């Protein structure tokens, strides 16, 4: 991967992350409160809808930049030779690249997500107060609570979203006989994001419960099957798919903004 392409992916990814996180923050707050253990209204309802936004603002640029740099570098490496260079192996290349990108991005994403979600579920506290309380009670490890569940949510999500996005772009491009415009790539991103969001909602519910649980509780230990079973037992299928509509809306519109902005900025820089 050339230096110019590396810089383009870094800047375009960061800009895309900032755009989507700050634009759609209220929907993310509603989704978090719908999934929280105490219930929507006790977690704040529609009050303080921008609670936790400083955490999202700080983490969104480096998080998205890390993902796209890893994604493009891995795609470039896997596509230069060997079995994965063949056109029919493209979905496997995209799956591997997206999975690795998510693991790297989660090193930045999880601490900001922990602070953001705890602030969203406790709107009377500021981001700074939540950060200090987390460090005081749990140390740095507390910032990475839910790392495993986040990775286990993001990888299946990316395994669906990115190969579907790349496939839709290729199909549309082939049908019209030229490279897609940025808005067309964004439409493909919106559809792929909505499908991936719905499929992975139960994993997102588990991740939210683990991040919001009291330190030392069974839920806080991060055992995903146990958390999902508890949700199933107490709230059934509805509980497992709690927040699926705002999540699908958020990720569909987010996919449009995120992947559209990424394509536009990257092409401009190249």
Topology of helices and strands:
Layout: H1 3-23, H2 25-35, H3 53-78, H4 90-121, H5 127-138, H6 140-143, H7 147-176, H8 182-199, H9 201-212, H10 224-240, H11 244-269
Organism: Seriola lalandi dorsalis
Membrane topology: Multi-pass membrane protein
Keywords: Membrane, Mitochondrion, Mitochondrion inner membrane, Repeat, Transmembrane, Transmembrane helix, Transport
Structure description:
Solcar repeats lie at residues 4-77, 89-171, 180-268. It is a multi-pass membrane protein. The chain crosses the membrane at residues 6-27, 180-199, 240-262. This protein has 270 residues and is mainly alpha-helical. The chain has a single domain, classed as Alpha/alpha barrel (Mitochondrial carrier fold), CATH 1.50.40.10. Helices cover 77% and strands 0% of the residues. The chain has 11 helices and no strands. It has helices at residues 3-23, 25-35, 53-78, 90-121, 127-138, 140-143, 147-176, 182-199, 201-212, 224-240, 244-269. Helix 1 runs antiparallel to helix 3 (53-78) and helix 1 (3-23) packs antiparallel against helix 11 (244-269). The longest helix is centred in the middle third of the chain and has 32 residues, at 90-121. It is globular. It starts with a helix and ends with a helix. The model has no long low-confidence stretch (mean pLDDT 87).
Strand content: under 5%
**Known CATH architecture:** Alpha/alpha barrel
Q: Name the CATH superfamily assignment.
A: Mitochondrial carrier domain
Please give the alpha-carbon distance between the first and last residues. Answer: 13 Å
Uncertain spans? none
Order of helices and strands: HHHHHHHHHHH
CATH topology descriptor: Mitochondrial carrier fold
Radius of gyration: 19 Å
Can you give the helix content as a percent range? over 70%
Q: Give me the oligomer status.
A: single chain
- Mean pLDDT across all residues, rounded? 87
* Major sheet attributes: none
The secondary-structure class comes to: mainly alpha
Total helices: the number is 11
């Amino acid at each position: 991967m050339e230096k110019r392409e590396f810089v383009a992916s870094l800047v375009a990814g960061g800009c895309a992350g900032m755009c989507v996180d700050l634009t759609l923050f209220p929907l993310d707050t509603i989704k978090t409160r719908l999934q929280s253990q105490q219930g929507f209204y006790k977690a704040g309802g529609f009050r303080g809808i921008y609670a936790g936004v400083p955490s999202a603002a700080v983490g969104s640029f480096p998080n998205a930049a890390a993902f796209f740099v890893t994604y493009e570098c891995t795609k470039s490496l896997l596509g230069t030779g060997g079995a994965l260079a063949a056109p029919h192996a493209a979905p496997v290349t995209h799956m591997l690249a997206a999975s690795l990108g998510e693991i790297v991005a989660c090193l930045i994403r999880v601490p900001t997500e922990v602070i953001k979600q705890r602030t969203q579920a406790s709107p009377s506290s500021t981001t700074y107060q939540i950060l200090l309380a987390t460090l005081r009670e749990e140390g740095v490890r507390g910032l990475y609570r839910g790392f495993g569940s986040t990775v286990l949510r993001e990888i299946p999500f990316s395994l669906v979203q990115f190969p579907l996005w790349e496939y839709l772009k290729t199909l549309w491009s082939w049908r019209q006989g030229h490279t897609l415009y940025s808005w067309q790539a964004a439409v493909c991103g919106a559809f792929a994001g909505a499908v991936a969001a719905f499929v992975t909602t139960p994993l997102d519910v588990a991740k939210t419960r683990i991040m919001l649980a009291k330190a030392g509780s069974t839920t806080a230990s991060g055992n995903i099957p146990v958390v999902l079973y508890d949700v199933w037992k107490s709230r059934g299928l509805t509980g497992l798919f709690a927040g699926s509509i705002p999540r699908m809306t958020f990720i569909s519109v987010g996919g449009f903004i995120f992947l559209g902005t990424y394509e536009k900025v990257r092409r401009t820089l190249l």
